[in-house]
Design goal:
The protein is an alpha/beta fold. The strands form four sheets. Strands 3-4-5-8-9-10-11-14 form an eight-stranded parallel beta barrel, surrounded by five helices. Strand 4, helix 2 and strand 5 form a beta-alpha-beta unit. The longest helix has 17 residues. It is globular.
């Protein structure tokens, strides 16, 4: 099955569409290494030139840097020609210690704190729009409510649904690094899509046990992030980061075994990692983080690269991939 990375797919029944390949904007917020305004805009410009029309950001990413840089690049584009998502559940607090110290390499002097209250959701969204310089986003995700389940269910999610009813946003979603709570959120019937990060990849298909079948039954679209699992599937001999931490020797060994099989077929591991999730019928789009024009160009090339069916069979035969998992 070949997937056109620039095919437009609807999220749920919202009328909001995304390209099958989307651009994750955490890296341009200075994730792990500084980027700078000029390079960040150049990365988005190159992704746009190549056909990407779905962009995903959040207040957390560089304490607002990603949103500001995304706005600078996208405000010059015709608004109807792209889809942009941001997130709520965290708000920026001026002068406070930052969230995830050491992860964001361009300190702004501001911190980010959780706020899943109804008023906090509205304030967060308004502040994001100010940073983006836009009057609305197409998709609004509830961001990482792991430790705030009750407030997320009773306050934040109904507020998101109300924003959608008012026409302030097109699609309501939730984004997390786990599938169990996302499944519970999908069962409320209030979500149009979910963003699952790192749990439907070549290394981790745990989302297949609960979330993906539930979303397929309910017509909830799945956006998959973290297809490189923070870096180890992009280059298992280089930056061996997994789930934002140094990868274990077991994870590195498994990724390298996959890479060797891919090399036999003339396929970079990152191409297989990027294309793999799109084979599941519930998956609408994959987000790939791109911090430079070169990374944008590479992501598009990996999305377009033909992958022989024999590679997927070899991965299954080597017990590196479950034979029952859908493959392209």
């Amino acid at each position: 099955m070949r997937v056109d990375p620039f095919e437009n797919v609807e999220l749920g029944a919202t009328g909001v569409t995304v390209t099958r390949l989307g651009m994750g904007l955490a890296p341009i917020g200075g994730l792990f290494a500084p980027v700078g305004d000029e390079a960040a805009v150049a990365a988005i410009d190159e992704a746009w030139r190549l056909g990407v029309r779905f962009f995903d950001t959040a207040p957390l990413y560089g304490a607002g840097l990603s949103e500001r840089r995304a706005g600078a690049a996208l405000r010059k584009r015709e608004r109807a020609k792209y889809t942009i998502a941001t997130k709520v559940g965290r708000r920026i607090r001026a002068g406070q210690p930052g969230d995830q110290p050491g992860v964001w390499a361009e300190p702004t002097g501001d911190g980010v704190e959780f706020d899943f209250s109804g008023a906090g959701i509205r304030s967060s969204y308004r502040e994001s729009l100010e940073r983006l310089g836009l009057d609305r986003t197409d998709v609004l995700h509830l961001h990482d409510p792991d430790d705030h389940r009750a407030e997320a269910m009773t306050c934040a999610l109904p507020e998101l649904a109300e924003l959608r009813r008012e026409g302030a946003v097109g699609a309501v979603s939730a984004g997390m690094n786990q599938s169990r709570m996302l499944t519970d959120l999908a069962r409320t019937g209030l979500l149009d899509s979910v963003l699952l990060a790192g749990r439907y990849s070549l290394l981790d298909q745990s989302g297949l046990a609960d979330l993906l079948p539930e979303c397929e039954r309910r017509g909830v679209s799945v956006i998959v992030g973290g297809v490189y699992n923070s870096g180890v599937l992009a280059d298992p001999w280089g930056r061996t980061t997994y789930d934002y931490r140094p990868a274990s020797s077991r994870v590195v060994a498994r990724a390298r075994a996959m890479a060797r099989l891919c090399n036999r077929h003339g396929v970079p591991l990152r191409a297989a990692a990027l294309q793999f999730p799109l084979a599941h019928p519930a998956v609408a789009s994959v987000l790939v983080g791109m911090r430079s024009a070169a990374e944008a160009s590479d992501a598009v090339a990996m999305a377009r690269l033909p992958i022989p069916g024999a590679l997927w069979r070899d991965l299954s035969d080597a017990w590196l991939l479950d034979p029952e998992v859908p493959v392209p």
